[in-house]
Structures are given as structure tokens and as C-alpha cells.
Amino acid sequence: MQRVTLKDKTFVPYITADKIAESVRLMAQKINTDLASDMPLFLVVLNGSFMFAADLLKEVTIPCEISFIKLASYHGTSSTGTVTEMIGLTEEIKGRTIVVVEDIVDTGVTLEKLMTLLIKKEVKQVKVASFLLKPEAYTKAMVVDYVGMEIPNEFVVGYGLDYDGLGRNMKEIYVLEKK
After folding, report:
1. CATH 3.10.330.10 fits 21-150, yes or no
2. Is 62 exposed, middle or buried (0-12, 13-18, 19+ CB in 10 A)?
3. Which of 31, 47, 164, 175 has the highest CB neighbour number within 10 Å of its CB?
């Protein structure tokens, strides 16, 4: 891993692909155990979660379904504080166990909006699986049930995470270089 520049920002190596893979595998094992008696619907939050979701769901061995929703709250390197539903949920989910698949939970604004939408649809239960969690930034009361890794409140890219649309395709995670 080496430094990368995306637009006007430089990022340095942070989490290796091997460490990511191990964390995803362990999370999938826990989900397989916890939800073995359910047939959950994995609701993948796009765009950032696509790589994590693909890797996670290759390791999930219990019967399940997969769907996608697109919500947005970021511009550049910071949250706008406003969530916009861009692509909605089309499946009937009343009475279902839902596993929300997120790339990263920082302030919790996006997650709170999604949870509100799901609760209105009378789901059985909602579990949250997030690859990254920023405990210092998280301001909401909702439980994040499955966390791949906790990180400090720093801006990261790679493994689905982007800076203005760039960097999602990198298999490792990089952190914004401190000047």
C-alpha cells in the first residue's frame, strides 16, 4: 500500500485488504449464528456498501434475500446533515427481519432516516451491520449490531468509500493525510 492522491487530497494506507477480509469473515460467522432461524432480508445501502456487501454476503450461509436502497447525506468530506432517499425499497418487508448493510456509520443521520422508514413498514426487527463505526462521531441511540472495525473520527476512502466519487474501487482503506 502506498499514498494515493484523489483530486486535491492525499490519503495514506490505513487498513489492509487482508485485515478487511478477516473482519468481514468474522462478522458473517456471527450473523450466520444469530439469524440462523430467520430468513433475513439484507438491505444494502448504496453506493458505499457495495464492496462490503458483496464480500459479506459471500460468507453468509443462511437462507436470505438481498435488496438495495440508496440514501445520500455526504458532499465532499463532510455530511450535509440532510438525507435524500434516491432509490426506494420495493419489497414487502412487513414482519421481516432486516439487516441494514452500511459501509460506515459516523454521525448516524443516514441510519436514523433509514430506521424511521423501516419502522413505518412494521418490520419484525432491524439489525445493523456496518463495516466501519466512528464511535466519537456517532450521535444516535440506535444499536449497531455488527461492526467490522471501529475507527477514529477521520475521513477514509477505499473499499467502497469515496471522496467526491473517487476511490471506491481501492481494495484497501486509506485515511486522509494529516498536514
Report:
1. no
2. middle
3. 31
Phi/psi region, residue 111 (left: phi>0; alpha: psi -120 to 50; beta: rest), is alpha
Query: pLDDT tens digits, the chain, 179 residues: what are they?
Result: 799 999 999 999 999 999 999 999 999 999 999 999 999 999 999 889 999 999 999 999 999 999 999 875 555 555 555 665 556 778 889 999 999 999 999 999 888 888 888 888 899 999 999 999 999 999 898 999 999 999 999 999 999 999 999 999 999 999 999 97
- Judged by DSSP in three states, 58 sits in helix
Task: Write out the catalytic residue numbers.
Answer: 106
Phi, psi of 145, rounded to the nearest 5 degrees = -70, -40
pTM, full prediction = 0.90
At residue 43's C-alpha, the angle toward residues 156 and 59, to 5°, is: 75
